[in-house]
Amino acid sequence: MSSVPSRERPGASRDYFKGHGLGNDYLVVEEGTAWRASEEAVGRICHRWEGVGGDGVVVLLRGESPPFRLRMFNPDGSEFERSGNGLRILAAHLFRTGRVGSEPFAVEVGGDSLTMQVHGADGRGEYDISVEMGRARVGTEAVGAGPGVVQVESRLALPEGPRLLAELVSVGNPHCVIFGESDPWRALTREALDRLGPVVSTHEGFPEGLNVQLARIVASDRIEFLVWERGVGHTTASGTSACAVAVAAVASGRLPPGDKTLVMEGGTLKVRVEEDLEVVLRGPVRAICDGEVDAGFARVLGGGRLPGPETAATTRSEDVETR
Length: 323
Hints:
Elements: E1 11-12, E2 15-21, E3 24-30, E4 35-36, H1 39-46, E5 57-60, E6 68-73, E7 79-80, H2 84-96, E8 105-109, E9 112-121, E10 126-135, E11 137-138, E12 155-157, E13 163-170, E14 174-179, H3 190-201, E15 211-219, E16 222-229, E17 233-235, H4 239-251, E18 258-264, E19 267-273, E20 278-292, H5 295-301, E21 314-315
Parallel strand pairs: 3-5, 6-8, 14-15, 16-18
Antiparallel strand pairs: 1-4, 2-3, 2-20, 5-6, 6-7, 8-9, 9-10, 10-20, 11-13, 12-13, 13-14, 15-16, 16-17, 18-19, 19-20, 20-21
C-alpha cells in the first residue's frame, strides 16, 4: 500500500544497475521504451528466481543534470514515496556514470526535493553516501491515520490483542516504531516481528499501510532494531526505518537529539536527528553489477509469456569498476 497517487507508469530501458545497502538491494533502471514499470512487470523483474531479483526498482526519469527525478516501486509492484537505501543506490549509479561528483546534488521523489552527497568511493565498489531526508513528523496525522484511530498515551489498539506502546513517524513514508520496553513484546526477536509485522503494517486504521520496527535502545547513541517493510515483509535493512527509529527515540524523549548509530541485521547506518526533527541518513552502498535484461524477457515485462530461467537476465559483469 502507498500514498503515491495512481498515475501512468514510466517506461524503462533494458539496462539496469544493481546495488545494495546492508543487504537491501534495488535495481536502478533509466527511463526508456523497452518495457513499462507496471505492477506485474515490477513484480516479475524483482522475482529472485524468475527475474533479476531485488527489493525494489528505482526508475530514473530522463535528465542528465540535477535535480534528478525518480519513481520507486516495491517488489509487489506498488509505488511508494521513498527509500533511504534506494536513494543512496541511485546516487552510486549517478556517481559511477559521471553525472555527479563529490558535491551535494538534488533529487526529486514522491513530491519532495532531497539533497544527497557521495562522500567517497573505496575503489572496490563501496560508496559512502548521505541523504538529507527532510523534517520528520510524528503522530497519527503524520502517517495518514483514518478516522477513529486514537493513541492514548502512545498506545495503539490492534484488531486483536493488547494495546501496543508505539511511536508513529513519517519520514516521507509512514512508520510504526515499537520499543522493547512495551510488554508483552519485551524481547527483540524474529518471532515477535513475524507476529506483529503483518498485523500492524496492514492495520485497517492506516490506509497507506505502515512500516514496522521493533527497537531496543542500548546506549545514548545506539539503537538496535528489526524491520517489517510494507509491500516487502521482513527485511535485513531499511534506510527510512533507521531514520524513523532514531526520530521516535528523540521525539518521545527517550534520547537527546544528535548523531545515532542504528543497528540492523544487515549492518549499521548513521542517522543525525536535529531538535526540530530534521534528519540526515548516511551509510555504505555496495555496487553489485551492471546488466541488461534479455530482449525476450523485456517483451515479457511488456505483457508476454514468462520465458524459461535461461533468458531471465543476462549479466554483463559480476562486479563493477569505480569511476
